[in-house]
Amino acid sequence: MKIYNHFYEIVIKSFTYLTHTWMQILRRKYVILTLFFSLNFIAATPAMAANLSNDLLKQPATEITISLGNSANELKFEPNHLEFEAGKRYQLRLTNPSQLKHYFTAKDFADGIWTQKVQAGKVEIKGAIHELELKPGAEAEWVFVPLKSGTYGLRCPILGHTEAGMTGEIVIKN
């Protein structure tokens, strides 16, 4: 019986050691594979973005003009319903002909597009844009490509403007 217990102890300890060793090996392999796929994805993203932007920059942009208010100081977007097609390049020309400051705010819409640039005066802005402020008489240009289909809200968040009807809808279709 003593030999059996000794043999049992050796097998269990060996099995425990082997199991622990194999678990460590599997964890290492998992971590290495995870890092490999993550780095591969990260490395592919700039290349894909470069190809995407090069192809898109060759497309002529469809120009759409939107007025934030009007010369009668009415609180509205003209037009207040915008439709875009995913994968196409657009140039929004935003104008503020009113004597009041207005915002073009559409965060969820902005999260679903690729912004090439926003230009106001002699300043060009790159990166994530969620809101544009236009002072009286100001103009801005927003060049972008819609990526994510959906229906998004548009509004001017200045106190009283949204409530007075300065809202709109932006639709991106596939």
Element layout with pairings:
Layout: H1 2-58, E1 62-68, E2 77-78, E3 81-85, E4 90-95, E5 102-105, H2 107-111, E6 113-120, E7 123-125, E8 131-134, E9 139-146, E10 150-155, E11 167-173
- Compute the separation of the termini in Å: 75 Å
The chain-level structural class is alpha+beta
Which runs of at least 5 residues are low in confidence (pLDDT < 50)? 39-45
Rounded average pLDDT: 82
Number of strands: 11
Radius of gyration from CA coordinates = 28 Å
- How are the strands ordered across the major sheet? 2-1-4-9-6-7
The assembly state of the depicted protein chains is single chain
Q: What kind of sheet is the major sheet?
A: 6 strands, mixed
- Residue fraction in strands: 25-35%
Number of DSSP helical runs: 2
Q: How are helices and strands ordered from N to C?
A: HEEEEEHEEEEEE
Shape: elongated
Helix content: 25-40%
Short description, anyone?
The protein is α+β, with helices and mostly antiparallel strands. Helix content is 36%, strand content 34%.
Throw out a few tags for this protein.
174 residues; alpha+beta; three-stranded mixed beta sheet; 2 helices; 34% strand
Characterization of this structure:
The structure is a single chain. It contains two helices and eleven strands. The chain is α+β, with helices and mostly antiparallel strands. The termini are far apart. Residues 39-45 have low confidence and may be disordered.
